[in-house]
Amino acid sequence: MGERRYTEQEEALEVKSLRRIIAAYANYHDAAERDVKRYERSFEMLPPSHKELLFHLGLKYQRLRWCISMNASFIMNMLEAFEPPVDMSQYVDVDDHDCGEDMHGHCHADCAHSIERGDFSRNSISMSNSELHEPDDRPRKDGKTHELSRETDNMNEVVDMEGCAQPVGDKLGASQGIDKSCNGDKDVNASDNRQDTDCTAYSADENVTPREFMAPSLPLNVPPIDVDKVRCIIRNIVRDWAQEGQKERDECYKPILDELNRLFPNRSKQRPPSCLVPGAGLGRLALEISCLGFVSQGNEFSYYMMICSSYILNHTQEANEWTIYPWIHSNCNSLSDNDQLRPVSFPDIHPSSSEITEGFSMCAGDFVEVYNEESQETAWDAVVTCFFLDTAHNIVEYIEIISKVLKDDGVWINLGPLLYHFADSYGPDDDMSIELSLEDVKRVAYHYGFVMEVEKMVDTTYTANMKAMMQNRYRAAFWTMRKNASRSKAQKQ
Ligand SMILES: C[S@@+](CC[C@H](N)C(=O)[O-])C[C@H]1O[C@@H](n2cnc3c(N)ncnc32)[C@H](O)[C@@H]1O
Asked: Distance, CA 113 to ligand 1 centroid (Å)?
């Protein structure tokens, strides 16, 4: 697929969208500090005898501040390293103050899978459950791919947001080619369909300008929902990149990896099978699949996710380089303050030093737009969807595209619930949401030529705090379906 030119309007929306997301990241510290101030105000309202009893809370609030500054420090380093795919100094006149972003943001994280969104701020509770997927999270839908490939003497290549693999910080020499093989149209309508949000509640610290690409200004208004998304990303870091997330990864990713291993027993290093991972989140599953001996491509449409995964994949110098405090944002359901304030180091591995198969890439863009292209037809040996299917407005369309991109006899491995992200969206835009039962999903898959080979239910969590007194569990559907060539052809006629 060739690279597509963008209209000025598309480019302007892209810049606006990115500026808002960067502002949300940059505002993390201030928003968290406001929470601590709120705790302190409540503490001050206590009668003296109660205050005396809870004297240690004063110290806890100071510790919280330190944790916040550690989290913010990671975030600012991440923003420092971010290379925006568009010229951020343009389109400053685009109305950044309308806060016209989609409020039915949807968070699939612990934040995302439904009930757990209650773990988050008051704002999350009123949202539908795919907070990370609102149109404005999205990188431009040109499906640019970002490769992380290996070279013998330099393991530190990067996956950057512009589709250019290049050495970390330009320090290490070997540069990689640009692969822009994925392409798609920018959905201007998606960005246009916005609801009003509460613009007035918070304003970003105007002094926080992580890099010149932020110039001339960040949006002043950072809606609380955007800051919640940053908190979701912090939890996703634990799921994908911390030792503490290993249990969750064993529950979710291991059955998929075992199945790929079983289904492709004679993988050749010369001609490795290919695997597409739509909705790749922070990229760990796609990386693990690459390490298993597949040409693996993660696809992701959230800039929140892409900025973070790109940083971890490309800029990590050593395992456990970073320490964050992921659980500080909720005082609820903690067994102890120490549990709530415990540090988490990441990444548990050094991505560039892992056994990556040549051709690993992250492809930015909307799955529907990027992979509905003719050039993607029968391009993949395997498609892996993990906690992804229910992000669809129209799950039938997802299944149709999965069938289309698979080679004949290709396999589709899925693990996840059916917590449709747009199911409880409400508001003037009335997002489309087709919500099928598992039985109907299987029937639709059969229609598109899939034959069920393995089927089971898997108990798991999603970005859960393992030490909390509340953990939402999913009975996720796991399956392997094979695309039956003759049946899918018959369907086409
Ligand atoms: C619940 S998360 C799962 C992430 C990852 N697979 C995991 O298991 O941790 C769903 C992911 O799909 C992404 N996503 C949602 N709709 C998408 C679309 N149409 N195209 C590409 N990515 C999408 C979201 O941004 C989010 O990162």
From this structure: 12
Note down the domain range covering 133: 8-492
The residue nearest atom 1 of ligand 1, judged by CA position, is: 108
Give bridge partners of residue 474 from the DSSP assignment.
460
Q: Which of 134, 250, 299, 301 to mutate to test the pocket of ligand 1 (most atoms within 8 A of CB)?
A: 301
CB 383, CB 412: distance < 8 Å: yes
Minimum mean pLDDT among 148-162, 233-247, 467-481: which range?
A: 148-162
* Residue 271 pLDDT exceeds 90: yes
pLDDT digits (tens, 9 = 90+) for 366-393: 999 999 999 999 999 999 999 999 999 9
Among protein residues, the one whose CA lies closest to atom 12 of ligand 1: 279
Q: Is the CB of 112 under 6 A from ligand 1?
A: yes
List C-alpha distances in Å: 36 to 61, 235, 324, 462, 474.
Answer: 6, 19, 17, 26, 32
301 lines ligand 1 (CB under 6 A): yes
pLDDT the model gives residue 16: 87
Query: How far, in Å, from the CA of 388 to the mean position of ligand 1?
Result: 5
- How many domains does the structure of the chain reveal? 1
CATH of the domain at 479: 3.40.50.150
- pTM for the predicted model, two decimal places: 0.81
Q: Which atom of ligand 1 is nearest to the CA of 113?
A: 1
Which pLDDT band, with edges at 50, 70 and 90, does 53 fall under? very high
In-domain check, residue 189 = yes
- Which pLDDT score is estimated for 129? 28
The answer, yes or no, to whether any atom of ligand 1 lies below 6 A from the CB of 276, is no
Residue 211: inside a domain: yes
Residue at 473 is within a domain: yes
Q: Is the CB of 367 under 6 A from ligand 1?
A: yes
In a domain, 2, yes or no: no
